[in-house]
Amino acid sequence: MTLRKKRAFHIGSASWLLLGAMSSGALAQETPTQLPDITVTAPSPIQRHRTAPTRTPTRVARAAPSRSRERADAVQPAPAAAAPAPQQGVLPVVTDQFATVTVIPNEELRRSGAATLGDLLFSKPGITGSSFAPGASSRPIIRGLDVNRVGIVENGLGGGGASDLGEDHFVPIDPLSTNQIEVVRGPAALRYGSTSIGGVVSATNNRIPDAMPTCTAAPFQSYGLPVKAPLADAGGPGCLNVETRTSVSSVNRGVDGGMLLDAGGNNVAVHADVYGRTTSDYSIPSYPYLFVPGQPFNGRQPNSATQSDGASVGASYFFQGGFIGAAITQNDSLYHIPGIDGADHQTRIDAHQTKIAVKGEYRPDAAAIDAVRFWVGATDYRHNEIGLADPADPLSDGVRQTFTSKEQEARVEVQMMPFNARFATVTTAFGLQGGHQELTAPSPDDPTSPLNGLWDPNKNNRVAGYVFNELKFTDTTKAQIAGRIEHVDLSGTTPAFIPPVFDVATDPASIGPATPQYPSFTPKSGSIGLIQNLPWDLVASATAQYVERAPKPAELFSRGPHDATATFDIGNPNLGIETAKSIEIGLRRATGPLRFELTGYYTRFDGFIFRRLTGNTCDESACQLGPGLELNQARYSQRDAIFRGAEFQSQLDIGPLNGGIWGIENQFDVVRATFTDGTNVPRIPPVRLGGGFYWRDSNWLTRINLVHAFAQNDIAVIGETPTAGYNLLNAEITYNTKLNSSWIGAREMTLGLVGNNLLNQNIRNSVSYTKDEVLMPGLGIRAFANLKF
């Protein structure tokens, strides 16, 4: 059976399963499952306020003086009364957003224990991680698009750091301190900027409280988000909540732990958290170096140990109709870089980030404006790349390169009141965004070289405006029209020319003189979407987007060695705007015994920017024709490309079993990316197919799941090798229960065991630059415990 026929068979089988489950309607109906409420805020500035049973309201909506309009009750809800607790492990499906959104709720984050966003999302349909240094440096990849096209935000502000400038750079957001992850698959550039042309990963936590804490025990699965301000009883008595998160792992002898504190009273809420994790070199199934035999090997991936920690403190003041808050966060990480070169030179990265964030919301008692929200942030990031200058000389250890990024960002959004336009109820939101960034990447090894470091110091400024309009034609039909325009100014220095062959050590004039560059761009983007409710609780969606992206500093100003990708990068200050034209259709079901989402998409890129390997090789100061030196010469270039693919995941509750519910789950995803001449775009994820079984009740969750990744043979002509397929078998068991606080002081406890890669397979990630030298971790067992006080 050919691969194409296999795909058709699997998709057809899934379709019959869907139709059969929806038509019967009898599966698992004897014991209906309490589904968790899903609240997402990343895709759109238009937020829908949910109603709930309330205390005596401190403020109520007023009737419109001259036109019909809608407004949600804006008071602080009382704790939910005697509702059955939502169960763990339920697939969260978002049906009220025009974009495709994957949600990683709080309880799944706690069970996963992943140390990076890329590791956390590694097997999600349509998403994977870069896996440059598993457990330390793995950035999310969405539908085959990475670094310069995937935005990462935390609490509405850019994550900061330098992870988009090098695959070996860590993302300064640790899942241990995060309450929910939202992944917008597909263009999210309309709200977050052209650097999110491929999608955005949004992490949220309570570092800036947006609601007063409540000490009443809430249902277990709240997705880490208390009901938002504003505000009843904000000036009530004080309240203190404490949570501890701990785990140990066998595969890397890892230990991690964190503590979160939320307190409030007299209109002030305070949050503090601290976390840390440490691991040694992780175990792998076999010798990791695919093409280089004879290297030292002791059953573990050489040079893969990690250590990280962080802390944050924040507070918010609540007033009638809103709040304003601020937080300061410190992230520190020291991690080793696996691979032959990394192990030989004992390469490691010592990274530090300080972040200050301010945000607020005000819901005026006005006829036209529903809410005003703002975010302001500043980050100061620095890391040193440390290693041996000479592998044979232990005394040559020192800093080989330093990266710094200083960034400031601000955004304000105004959501208008819905108004009746006769043909539809229209809700509009406007946004303004601005930012500034300064980058440096010097190396102390040869400070006088014209090719010192990856690039010369450079700056960029950006300002943008955007508008979202949602039209509610009926309760079952909605549409969205959105647009964005931004302006980007960059300044940097590059050699006037860099020929294919040169040697600045013997002839400094073999490259052009340093020349100031001042490129500027004005990307414009727009989208239109439709949501239609269908019978059987189905929701269909269709969207079309036109998105433009301005080139990033690394693509314009690079002119030196980049060890992470084993390339000598040559930027192009003459690059133009990259354009994506995309269509996407989806079908989802979030309720009932069958929950699923199915999405298909097609995107054409005009002027797709990528690293083009020339076939020449380089060292720190010279390039020659053909092979022979350690780095591949890569020039940033533009070509037209086409990305198309599909994603599917589902859960089916089969029926009652021993007081709980058992069921099956499955997933499938494929992305195919080619240039318009038919050649392959490099480093694309493989086709993946998976499934498993689960059983859960109000306390227990057990699950076993197998994901098969097919071999990836659709590779670039130069600089890429085929990647073998693998089978990833995971299993878990989790127990959650309420406690009598008089026992140990805790009111809720969650314990669990998770087994990863139980088949102990050799797993290589086709999107990783180091896949031929770095295996993913082998068989491991993780035990975790969370306590809420």
Rounded average pLDDT: 87
- Radius of gyration, whole Å: 26 Å
Which secondary-structure class do the elements indicate? mainly beta
Count the DSSP helices. 7
Poorly predicted regions: 1-32, 50-84, 217-235
Main sheet summary: 22 strands, antiparallel, barrel
How many β-strands, per DSSP?
36
Range of strand content: over 45%
**Proportion of helical residues:** under 10%
What global shape is seen? globular
Alpha-carbon distance between the termini? 56 Å
Domain TonB-dependent receptor plug: 98-200
Organism: Bradyrhizobium brasilense
Signal peptide: 1-28
Membrane topology: Multi-pass membrane protein
Notes on the structure:
There is one protein chain. By secondary structure, the protein is mainly beta. Helix content is 7%, strand content 47%. It has seven helices and 36 strands. It has a 22-stranded antiparallel beta barrel. Strands 1-6-7-4-5 form a five-stranded mixed beta sheet. β16 and β17 form a beta hairpin. It is globular. It starts with a helix and ends with a strand. It is found in: Cell outer membrane. It is a multi-pass membrane protein. Belongs to the TonB-dependent receptor family.
Helix and strand arrangement:
Layout lengths: L2 H22 L75 E5 L1 H7 L4 H4 L6 E3 L10 E3 L7 E5 L2 E2 L21 E6 L3 H4 L6 E6 L34 E11 L4 E12 L2 E12 L26 E14 L2 E15 L3 H6 L2 E15 L6 E20 L8 E20 L2 E2 L4 E16 L17 E15 L4 E19 L6 E2 L10 E4 L2 E2 L2 E10 L4 E12 L3 H5 L1 E4 L4 E4 L7 E12 L4 E25 L3 E3 L6 E27 L2 E16 L12 E9 L3 E10 L16 E13 L2 H4 L3 E9 L23 E9 L1
Parallel strand pairs: 4-7, 26-30
Antiparallel strand pairs: 1-6, 2-3, 4-5, 6-7, 8-9, 8-36, 9-10, 10-11, 11-12, 12-13, 13-14, 14-15, 15-17, 16-17, 17-18, 18-19, 19-21, 19-22, 19-23, 20-29, 23-24, 24-27, 25-26, 27-28, 28-29, 28-30, 30-31, 31-32, 32-33, 33-34, 34-35, 35-36
